Amino acid sequence: MPSLHAVDLNLLVALDALARERSVTKAAERAGVTQSAMSHTLRRLRELFDDPLLVRGRGGMLLTPRAEALVVPLRSGLLSLARTLAEPEPFAPANASRTFRIVSPDLFDALVLPTLLKRLGRDAPSIDLAVVPTPKRLSDSLETGDVDLAIHPVLLDPQPFDLGTQVDAELQSRTLFRDSFRCFVRSGHPELSGRRRLALDAYTRLSHVLVSPGGEGPGVVDRILHAQGLERRIALRVPHFATALEVLEQSDLVLTAPSSLSKCSAAPALMSYPVPLDIPEHAITMIWHPRFTEDPAQRWLRELMVDVAREVPGLPSEQRHAE
After folding, report:
1. What is the pTM of this model?
2. Spatial CB neighbours of 195, under 8 Å, sequence gap ≥ 6
3. Helical H runs in the chain?
């Protein structure tokens, strides 16, 4: 028998009809074709399998042993193919059982995951989440479905500055909310205690901690300072905001971070100041591969993210934004 790519799959559908009806006439009616067309198809099937397949007997047409052996696997394969091509069933989160894999910054996790888990517990009790490390090729992982959704910060600047992992332009995105930046220091900082503002000269003179997931390269602040002929000292780089908060409480470093950081549990011990630089707002976006845009489960997850993002505790209303 030739390889599958050389086989007209319509022949297999006709063979299933012939095996069910044991009659060329009835098989033709079942398939919605003429008796002559079905007779021609039977001849092609006999050539394909090098076997008579159906022969005349006392009670009508009989299947040959070769045809008998084909009936069950053929019918099973056609049924599986039909189910594959059928319209997908609506996604029912209350009854669904699966794990969504998400890539997200730890600040987003701290702000959003508690509310997200409450919503899942209420509306989708058998759905689990896995927050996974950013893969080397995020776009590839989104395309294959190894990652369902990624949370991605982008600076809202005429010349966009990617605040996270570089992603391909083909990916789809939606803004969850916008946020501004502030400077954070420990309460009782020797140079800033009692001050209402942080001057630019003091800002550039002090030492800083930079949250840098990649561990290298300039931050958005350094790019803006460089354009003004200024620079600051990065005394410490860490990959996570949680680590930066722990360090900040026990040092005199300055952290320039999203203003929503103040809503984290460790932040009340900190003081914050407006950044003495003109830094545009940044958008927290979710990104996914277009092949999953119409997937019912992933569409439900994205809509849930939009709803939960609106409930980020304490985020000023003018910064709430879902596009």
Report:
1. 0.70
2. 273
3. 9-21, 24-31, 35-49, 65-85, 106-123, 138-144, 200-205, 220-227, 241-249, 296-309
Question: Do the Cβ atoms of 18 and 54 come closer than 8 Å?
Answer: yes
Q: Is 295 exposed, middle or buried (0-12, 13-18, 19+ CB in 10 A)?
A: middle
For residue 132, how many other CB atoms are within 10 A of its CB? Answer: 15
Structural domains in the chain, sorted by start: 4-85 (1.10.10.10), 98-178+282-319 (3.40.190.10), 181-274 (3.40.190.10)
> Who's near 300: CB < 8 A, 6+ residues apart?
91, 93
Residues 6+ apart with CB under 8 A from 246: 266
139, 257 Cβ separation under 8 angstroms: no
Mean pLDDT (whole number) for 77-81 = 82
Residue among 151, 148, 142, 170 at smallest CA distance from 110: 151
Q: Could you read off the pLDDT of 130-174 as tens digits, one per residue? A: 999 988 888 888 988 889 999 988 887 655 455 555 567 789 999
295, 296, 301, 307: CA torsion to nearest 10? 120
